[in-house]
């Protein structure tokens, strides 16, 4: 437990340092806040996930490598955006609705399709990394069209060498933190009799999502609502295409995907990603009510994971209820809301 706590502290400290330096460098380059959130902040806050997944793959615990990405993406949308929207209703850029959200849904569907054979091999990793390069190219093109009139000027310029040294220090902290956190999590899982999938979906996923949570909450408190939302969407895309892609490419063996992840966790991740499109489109904002909806969905998902882990008969009923009643009814309602919003806007 002490090792787990130390790893968590180092993880948060390294991610915080990395995000601060990255945001300052991007602001010095006069980049639009939304693009900072989608790229620099998202990449920085995804670094802990990259660290843990790579070490899990090399330690032959691929269920943790895959499960932590799935769990982190679900947590980022439902909890991070949910809590941020409770602080202040989040404004959603039209670029997110037209480009980034559809790409996040496509990335989720791509991972699901590639995992249908119950593994992710090097060829799958190459396909995911190619998708990441296409995404970065689209963002670069978008940044050129957006111009510099949205740039952040509230941060004083700092020397490049100073920022680079701090970023290298942050990466070292993240590497040590990932090693401590993964070793402690596997030990705790073994002692408690938990599967690697459950540990990846819960402890590791929440731990590696804390930088995104902290960044979005601070951005929401400061009124930087574009960064609060862009950080989550960009981080999810990086997790799917970058983290899973690189991990599958360099892992000594193909990453195994458990049948339970295929049957439940991946469909939930894809459904949560698809849920963003109608929610964001209706009014181009996330209201406090929608934030509560996100948190309620994560509570139901967490209850299912706990009941499944403890062998409660409630697990099967919850899974059937979520997959065949709650999510379809929610999607139908949101589709109706989306059509109504479209008619109102046109």
Concise synopsis of the structure shown:
By secondary structure, the chain is mainly α. It is built from eleven helices and four strands, in the order αααβαβααααβαβαα. Helix 3 runs parallel beside helix 7 (196-221).
Structure overview:
With 346 residues, the protein is an all-alpha fold. Helices cover 83% and strands 2% of the residues. The protein is built from 11 helices and 4 strands; from the N terminus they run αααβαβααααβαβαα. The strands form 2 sheets. It has a two-stranded antiparallel sheet. A two-stranded antiparallel ribbon has the order 2-3. Helix 1 (2-28) packs antiparallel against helix 6 (160-192). It is globular and about 50 Å long.
Could you give a short account of the major beta sheet?
2 strands, antiparallel
Instruction: State the helix count.
Output: 11
Give the DSSP E fraction (strand runs of 2 or more residues): under 5%
Give the rounded overall mean pLDDT.
Answer: 81
Stretches where pLDDT falls below 50 for ≥5 residues? Answer: 148-153
Helix and strand composition category: mainly alpha
């Amino acid at each position: 437990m002490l090792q787990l706590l130390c790893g968590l502290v180092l993880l948060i400290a390294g991610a915080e340092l990395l995000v601060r330096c990255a945001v300052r460098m991007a602001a010095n380059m006069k980049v639009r806040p939304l693009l900072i959130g989608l790229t620099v902040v998202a990449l920085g806050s995804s670094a802990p996930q990259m660290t843990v997944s790579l070490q899990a793959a090399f330690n032959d615990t691929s269920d943790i490598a895959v499960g932590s990405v799935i769990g982190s993406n679900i947590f980022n949308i439902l909890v991070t955006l949910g809590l941020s929207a409770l602080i202040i209703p989040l404004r959603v850029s039209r670029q997110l609705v037209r480009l980034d959200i559809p790409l996040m849904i496509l990335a989720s569907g791509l991972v699901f399709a590639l995992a249908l054979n119950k593994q992710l091999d090097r060829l799958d990793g190459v396909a995911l990394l190619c998708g990441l390069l296409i995404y970065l190219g689209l963002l670069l093109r978008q940044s050129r069209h957006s111009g510099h009139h949205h740039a952040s000027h509230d941060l004083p310029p700092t020397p490049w060498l100073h920022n680079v040294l701090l970023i290298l220090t942050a990466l070292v902290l993240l590497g040590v933190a990932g090693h401590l956190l993964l070793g402690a999590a596997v030990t705790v899982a073994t002692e408690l009799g938990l599967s690697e999938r459950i540990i990846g979906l819960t402890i590791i996923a929440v731990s590696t999502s804390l930088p995104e949570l902290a960044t979005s909450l601070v951005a929401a408190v400061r009124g930087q609502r574009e960064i609060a939302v862009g950080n989550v969407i960009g981080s999810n895309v990086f997790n799917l295409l970058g983290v899973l892609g690189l991990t599958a490419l360099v892992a000594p063996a193909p990453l195994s995907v458990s049948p339970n992840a295929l049957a439940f966790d991946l469909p939930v991740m894809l459904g949560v990603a698809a849920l963003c499109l109608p929610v964001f489109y209706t009014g181009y904002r996330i209201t406090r009510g929608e934030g509560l909806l996100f948190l309620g969905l994560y509570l139901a998902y967490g209850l299912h994971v706990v009941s499944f882990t403890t062998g409660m008969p409630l697990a099967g009923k919850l899974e059937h209820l979520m997959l065949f009643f709650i999510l379809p009814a929610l999607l139908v309602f949101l589709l109706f809301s989306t059509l109504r919003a479209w008619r109102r806007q046109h």
